[in-house]
Amino acid sequence: MKRFLESLVVFYQKCISPLFPPHCRYYPTCSNYMLTAIKKHGCILGTIMGIARILRCQPLVRGGYDPVPDKFTIFRNRRAEKEYRHKMHLD
Predict the structure, then answer these.
(1) Which residues pair with 27 in a beta bridge?
(2) Can you list the pairs that 75-78 forms with residues at least 24 positions away whose Cβ atoms lie under 8 Å?
(3) Record's Pfam families (predicted)?
(4) Quick one: pLDDT at residue 84?
(5) At what angle do helices 2-11 and 30-41 cross, to 10 degrees?
(6) Over 80: is that where the pLDDT of 91 sits?
(7) Of the candidates 62, 61, 39, 59, which has an alpha carbon nearest to the alpha carbon of residue 49?
(8) What is the distance between the alpha carbons of residues 32 and 87, in angstroms, rounded to a whole number?
(9) What span, in angstroms and rounded, lies between the C-alpha atoms of 22 and 50?
(10) CA dist., res. 85 & res. 31, Å (int)
(11) How far apart are CA 54 and CA 38, in angstroms?
């Protein structure tokens, strides 16, 4: 099941995504986030995290750096974003 889900995301990345202009508000992109979440948290939790991320990727959200957290959550990884902004002197 895990490989099937990963192959669906890779198919999207290679065949569907190039047809549209890039517009993801986050880094890493939503599809890369989904792949990492599935690898890190398994099929069910990883898919839930990926779907939650896709739902957050909309014009009313600031976006920015949002890596997959080590613990399952459907919310944004604010601690990693804070560390990144501090490291890059963006605060």
Answers:
(1) 65
(2) none
(3) YidD
(4) 84
(5) 170
(6) no
(7) 39
(8) 23
(9) 18
(10) 23
(11) 14
